[in-house]
Amino acid sequence: MAFDFEKILIEKHTIEKRVIELGKKISSDYTDKELLVICILKGSILFFADLIRSLSIPVKIDFIKASSYGTRTSTSGEVKVNDLLSEKIKGQSVLLVEDIVDSGFTIKRILDFFMEQGAADVRVCTLLDKPDRRATDIKPDYSGFTIPDEFVVGYGMDFDQKYRNLPYIAVLKETEK
Ligand code: 5GP
């Protein structure tokens, strides 16, 4: 079955270039600190894997899963955090790696969760930022690309659990949704 996209929004090589830039910036910001990098499953898996390989500092990694309730293309304010963590959080510098910050409810809930666990410092690195739809006061510390209010898939992001394996980011045709 062929993919039917409206357009490719961000090409593979553009993502690769930006991830390297983010990796350099994060490495220089955390030279003197021990950093725990958190992959927020499932959407940030490809971004996370590329980002940690672009870091020039030693880091620990861990995983967390967040599920939100809402329609198929937008989230509600209710977010559940399924804790898969095995690393100690108390006193740690933590970097949350997210695919998209949209309303901001998901990342805010996760940020609060890590603060409640006693993290020393929690920052957010998102691949995509959709500021038009923000409903919280969240501002990512690191952001790959700011995009308009369009539903995107690929590079980890899904629609009905499909398209996560695409190496680029695309906008689905209305008929595909
Ligand atoms: P928020 O809680 O900020 O509204 O939504 C964040 C989560 O909603 C993201 O982690 C992602 O899972 C999902 N999401 C938001 N916008 C999009 C989008 O355009 N495409 C996909 N595939 N997921 C999205």
UniProtKB/TrEMBL annotation:
SUPFAM superfamilies to which the protein is assigned, alphabetical: PRTase-like
GO BP, sorted A to Z: GMP salvage; guanine salvage; hypoxanthine metabolic process; IMP salvage; purine ribonucleoside salvage
GO molecular function: guanine phosphoribosyltransferase activity; hypoxanthine phosphoribosyltransferase activity; magnesium ion binding; nucleotide binding
Superkingdom of the source species: Bacteria
Ranges in a coiled coil: none
InterPro entries linked: HGPRT, Hxn_phspho_trans, PRTase-like, PRTase_dom
UniProt-annotated location(s): Cytoplasm
Catalytic activity from the UniProt record: IMP + diphosphate = hypoxanthine + 5-phospho-alpha-D-ribose 1-diphosphate; GMP + diphosphate = guanine + 5-phospho-alpha-D-ribose 1-diphosphate
Pfam family for this entry, one: Pribosyltran
Keyword Kinase: no
Cofactor(s) for this UniProt protein: Mg(2+)
Protein family membership: Belongs to the purine/pyrimidine phosphoribosyltransferase family.
Purpose of the protein: Purine salvage pathway enzyme that catalyzes the transfer of the ribosyl-5-phosphate group from 5-phospho-alpha-D-ribose 1-diphosphate (PRPP) to the N9 position of the 6-oxopurines hypoxanthine and guanine to form the corresponding ribonucleotides IMP (inosine 5'-monophosphate) and GMP (guanosine 5'-monophosphate), with the release of PPi.
Name of the protein this chain belongs to: Hypoxanthine phosphoribosyltransferase
Native species: Eubacterium callanderi
